[in-house]
Specification:
The chain is built from 18 helices and no strands. This is eIF5-mimic protein 1.
Length: 396
């Protein structure tokens, strides 16, 4: 008894022998598994147990079968040797349901096993993949498995080979045959997988049209319609977010204008304060290569606000000087100066006149050689553009 409990090969041999004796009688298999759990250590050897029940033998990492040539160490009475038929696989699903209801602690181990098997899909034949997809779909439908097991399908090697998408189609079909499309979509939402369905396809095919065509042709139009609705809702949420941000900026503009009027503040005094407030609103990344990207994203959002209060040449120069000082005082921003100025130029916060004036005479001493060097090419481009527009004006 002690040997049976703690030897994996003895554990395997006992399970294989019991399955072979029970034969194709799934009721007898369920009874054997129920009874054997009281003397074998299912908790310790759960992965071996489930490997045998699904594939007929122990599996090595990657999914290849161990002891495949020794017929005494494998069984044909398992999912992979069952008929490729929904009812036949459903009967096998009942074996797993009974086993997990009897030994509740196997629930998590079974979930981990299915996740593992999905990673091994390349090692299985197409018919084995189909049977595993049907089994998974049926067990997802009756709640034995959670939808989170599907995250294994987003693995690069099976996505690129097209295995992930074809497996998912078979799985969803089996799921919907047990229940309906609504149970699939609600489970995907709960598991936060509804927005990840496109990841079943390689990057160059991750678009709604390809997904819709593939799933509709496979007879899963409900799921392609569901994805279209999800994408549409996502777009609407983005728009809603942008409108909320615009409303917030409008509120800030009105508030600042009222304060300017009440305290008789000139615009050049306000722009410096606004810059400081905007930059203090964020916890900045400490890595130089990441902070520039973070800053541009943040400042792009607030550019319309700064544009309202930089309508005078003096205000623009003060803003440029503030940006220069900030980038000098915060070492991680040293390389971001030129990118910020170009962003503000494109967003109509800064004019070319102000940038050229700052470059020639209005810059401050802090880090001037570094920042002037950064701006050199952009300034040359501005000067050339200015000269071209002047010569065009003379011709006219």
């Amino acid at each position: 008894d002690e040997k049976e409990k703690f030897e994996p090969t003895v554990f395997r041999d006992t399970i294989v022998q019991g399955l072979n004796e029970a034969g194709n009688d799934l009721e007898a298999i369920a009874k054997f598994l129920d009874a054997t759990g009281s003397r074998l250590d299912y908790r310790r050897y759960a992965d071996t147990l489930f490997d045998i029940l699904v594939a007929g033998s122990m599996l090595a990492p990657g999914g290849t079968r161990i002891d495949d040539n020794d017929k005494t160490k494998m069984t044909n009475h398992c999912v992979f040797f069952a008929e490729e038929d929904h009812d036949a696989i459903r009967n096998y699903a009942q074996v797993f349901n009974k086993l997990i209801r009897r030994y509740k602690y196997l629930e998590k181990a079974f979930e981990d096993e299915i996740k593992k098997l999905l990673l091994f899909l390349k090692a299985f034949t197409e018919t084995e993949q189909t049977k595993l997809a049907m089994l998974s779909g049926i067990l997802l439908a009756n709640g034995t498995l959670p939808a989170t097991i599907l995250t294994s399908l987003f693995t690069d090697n099976i996505v690129k080979e097209g295995i992930a998408a074809s497996f998912a189609v078979k799985l969803f079909k089996a799921w919907m045959a047990e229940k309906d499309a609504n149970s699939v979509t609600s489970a995907l939402r709960k598991a936060n997988l509804d927005k990840r369905l496109l990841e079943l396809f390689p990057a160059n095919r991750q678009n709604v049209d390809h997904f819709a065509k593939y799933f509709t042709e496979a007879g899963l139009k409900e799921l392609s319609d569901f994805l279209r609705v999800q994408q549409s809702l996502g777009t609407r949420k983005e728009l809603q977010k942008e409108l909320q941000e615009l409303y917030f900026l409008l509120q800030v503009v009105l508030y600042v204008k009222e304060e300017m009027k009440r305290n008789e503040l000139p615009e050049p005094a306000v722009i410096g304060l606004l810059w400081t407030c905007v930059m203090n609103a964020v916890e900045w990344n400490k890595k130089e290569e990441l902070v520039a990207e973070q800053a541009l994203k943040h400042l792009k959002q607030y550019a319309p606000l700064l544009a309202v209060f930089s309508t005078q040449g003096q205000s623009e120069l003060i803003l440029l000087q503030k940006v220069q000082e900030y980038c000098y005082d915060n070492i991680h921003f040293m390389k971001a100066f030129q990118k910020i100025v170009v962003l503000f130029y494109k967003a109509d916060v800064l004019s070319e006149e102000a940038i050229l004036k700052w470059y020639k005479e209005a810059h401050v001493a802090k880090g001037k050689s570094v920042f002037l060097d950064q701006m050199k090419k952009f300034v040359e481009w501005l000067q050339n553009a200015e000269e071209e527009s002047e010569s065009e004006g003379e011709e006219n």
